[in-house]
Every structure is written in C-alpha cells, then in structure tokens.
Specification:
- By secondary structure, the protein is an alpha+beta fold.
- Among the domains are: 10-146, no CATH class; 220-275, no CATH class.
- 26% of the residues lie in helices and 16% in strands.
- The protein has seven helices and 13 strands.
- The longest helix is centred in the first third of the chain and has 20 residues, at 77-96.
Length: 294
C-alpha cells in the first residue's frame, strides 16, 4: 500500500523543515534589522505581516491546482485558500504574542522551493528529502524565539541559527542546532547529515562508547568490503549495493531483475521479487486541494 506523505500547506512544511533533513535550508535576526543582519536568505517579493497569509495562500493553491485536478482529487479554490489561510493566520497570531518573529525577506525563497515540489504531483522519497536542502529559508519566515538549549515542545519554537546550512530542531525537550551538507571527515548524527556523495560512518568497534564515533566519508566502490543490510544501503556508492553472499559492493540490479530486498535495486524498490520503478508519493491531498481532511 502506498504511503501518503502529506505536504499540505507551505507553512506546514516550513514549520516542519527540520524534520525533513529539514526539513530542511541561512540566518536569523531581529525584526529591527529585517530579520537576518544581512546574512539571511533573500527571496524577493513584498510581504507584510498583514498580507503574507493572503498572498501566500493564493500562491500555494495556484501551484497545487493542476495536480489536484489531474490526480482526480478535485480542486476547490475558496476552500483551499481558507485552509491555507487558517494555518498561516495561526502563525501570525504567535508573532503578535511574541512567540515568533516574522521575516518577510525569507518568504519568496520558501514559497518557490515548496511550490516547485508541489507542482511535481508525485515525488520519490529522495526528492522529498531534497526539499530539505532547498527550503531552509522556510525556517526564517515565522522564526521561533527559544535559544539553543532552551525548553521546547516543537521544532517551530526554536530560534533558527545564523550559520550556513544549519537549522533548529526540538530534541528531547530542548532546542538543538542541526547541520546539513557536512563535509568529509566531519561528525554526523540524527541532526547532522552528510553532503551528497558522502555517508555517515559509525565506528563498528565502538562497543559501549557513547556517543558512538561517527564521521562523513566517501562510499565504498565495487569490490570493496561492506556490511550487508536488508533495510538500508549507505556504505556502497550510488548504483551499488552490499551483497549478502560476498559482503562486497556490487552493481545494483536493473528494472525487471530478480531481487530479495529494496537495497538490491538501482531504483530502491523491490516488489514481488522484481526491481520496479521508484516508489512515488503524492504531493497534494484532500486537505490541500479542497480544504478537508482526507
């Protein structure tokens, strides 16, 4: 059964961007300096706290309309806009309560990144995770105010960091700073992901050492030793997988070839013992298209 990965409104995505990689892309600041001290993401466009919800809801629904109609879900413009407005208006209310800060210069970049994904109609899991690196601007639109180490219940409460390729997240009740695009040799973890072309290596001989030593490193090539897994394939380079019988990296299987698990297939999808096209997930749903829960 196909999993429905919901994308809902742009503002739902921007508030959960840390969870995608994020979800998710930057710099924050105070309202007095425009929100980014000159270092934050740009985005163009003219938005104010009074009109941002009206403008973005209309943009979001216009982007979703073609896929809503082609998917068979249907499209109700008034209901779509009302639903998107409600989520955005809630964030505006938090700004007025002093629990968020609004940064209009980040809106354009966020809208463009997420609308581009919505317009795909369907996306692979890899494409969905790709939203993370392309939409870090979203965390600055309605930025949280809780500093690193402060108490939190949700990612959106945490204040975005000022460094490039960083994001804020709530972990075990405290705000932490995560990183994307970590370089070779740099540490990696749940909140610190490696750049494309690298994988997060964990020391297999760490024993009871906590935390387990990790670092970003280049994947292994064909013929190199690896540790087989039926659930993930991080050690071997793109287009390879770790074979159970040889514990070495070998060429991944093409469409139609026999397989025993998804990691064996170049597409990452094994169905009825054959490699098939990559699984895709809808980027629109009933709530986004018609303003109702699906």
């Amino acid at each position: 059964m196909k999993t429905n990965i919901r994308l809902r409104s742009l503002f739902t995505i921007l508030l959960s961007s840390a969870a995608l990689g994020v979800v998710a892309i930057g710099c924050g600041g105070s309202d007095d300096d425009g929100g980014n001290n000159g270092n934050g993401p740009g985005g163009g466009g003219s938005y104010t706290l009074d009109d941002v919800c009206e403008k973005v809801a209309a943009q979001q629904c216009a982007a979703a309309k073609p896929c809503c109609e082609s998917s068979g879900i249907g499209y109700d413009e008034a209901a779509c806009i009302a639903s998107a407005r409600a989520e955005c208006d809630f964030e505006v209310s938090l700004v007025k309560e002093g629990k968020r800060t609004f940064h209009p210069e980040a809106v354009g970049a966020c809208v463009s990144a997420v609308a581009g994904m919505v317009q795909k109609c369907e996306a692979t899991l890899e494409e969905l995770f790709g939203v993370a690196s392309s939409s870090l601007a979203c965390q600055y639109v309605f930025a949280g105010t809780v500093e690193e180490g402060g108490a939190c219940e949700d990612d959106s409460e945490c204040k975005p960091p000022s460094g490039e390729n960083q994001f804020a997240a709530c972990d075990e009740g405290k705000c932490v700073i995560g990183h994307i695009n970590r370089g070779e040799g740099e540490s990696c973890s749940e909140f610190d992901s490696c750049a494309e072309g690298l994988y997060c290596w964990a020391d297999p001989d760490a024993g009871s050492t906590q935390p387990i030593p990790t670092k970003c490193q280049k994947p292994k090539q064909a013929g190199e030793a690896c540790t087989p897994s039926a659930f993930a394939n991080f050690e071997c380079a793109n287009g390879l997988y770790c074979a159970n019988d040889t514990s070495t990296c070998v060429d991944a299987k093409a469409l139609g070839e026999a397989c025993g698990s998804p990691v064996e297939c170049a597409t990452g999808n094994c169905q009825e013992s054959k490699c098939v096209e990559p699984e895709k997930y809808p980027t629109v749903d009933e709530e986004m298209c018609k303003g109702v829960e699906d």
